[in-house]
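look at this record:
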Amino acid sequence: MCGMSQQPPVRSTSSPPRPDASMSLLTNVMDHSLDDGYAEAAARRAEGGQGLPGKLRAKLGLAAALLLAALVVTLGAVQARISAPTLAKERQQLINRIQNETSAADALQKNVDGLRDSVGTKQRDALRKHGGDKAELVSLLAGATPVRGPGVKVVVDDAKQAKSSGGGPRENTGFSDTGRVRDRDMQRVVNGLWQSGAEAIAINGQRLTALSAIRAAGEAILVDNKPLVPPYTVLAIGNGQRLSTAFQDSADGQYLHVLQQNYGVRASISAEDEVRLPAAPSLIVRTAKPGKGTS
């Protein structure tokens, strides 16, 4: 044992290992918490003045937009408040003008009605004075006096559900609705009543004479230039039952029946014990004389 030689222990010349050598990955993460690419991007944003986070910029933009909207609304409210008295004053002035003009028109219409009544009275007096023995008959035929007696009542009205464009044969006469009562319809009703023996006729209180005209203006029916609105009530004096039967059997009565069946126009006729007709609002007195050289 003593004969064996002892060798000294071998010593390493390198530095001793670090205590945290086994935690090199964690140490690297702590020393370099941000990747080099991210670090460079952050530096560029800082240099370009875009250092604010995205959410903060969005909030600031929204706040600026709300502030601008509030400013616009406030300015509009202030402007409306300033101009409100002027608008109210102009509106009141317009209302006053309308009321004044309406009152003036009513006064003129009243004056016209008074003059018309005065002229009608003088015309009726002239008929009575110069009509001789037939003055009453002439006054009746001319519509110069109100009358009453037995007769019939014919009511004509538009269809309940009139279409705006019927496309039927009635459309070419100027009315766009085939369910509407037209001036020619009322002309045929009136002519049929005259032919059936009516002695006096009025439509919606408008007395007809030998010179009365039933026309159309647009889609309105005019009687002696006065517009009428449906339903159209025709009163005729005569023998009630006989007049009603004769009218319904006539060609014009059948025409009215066709309007009911084909176009939905509503119509009714009834015999009345007594009907009252006013005098015509205005009369035109004409005298016929034989011409020279006639035999």
Remarks:
- Confidence is low (pLDDT under 50) at residues 1-14, 164-169.
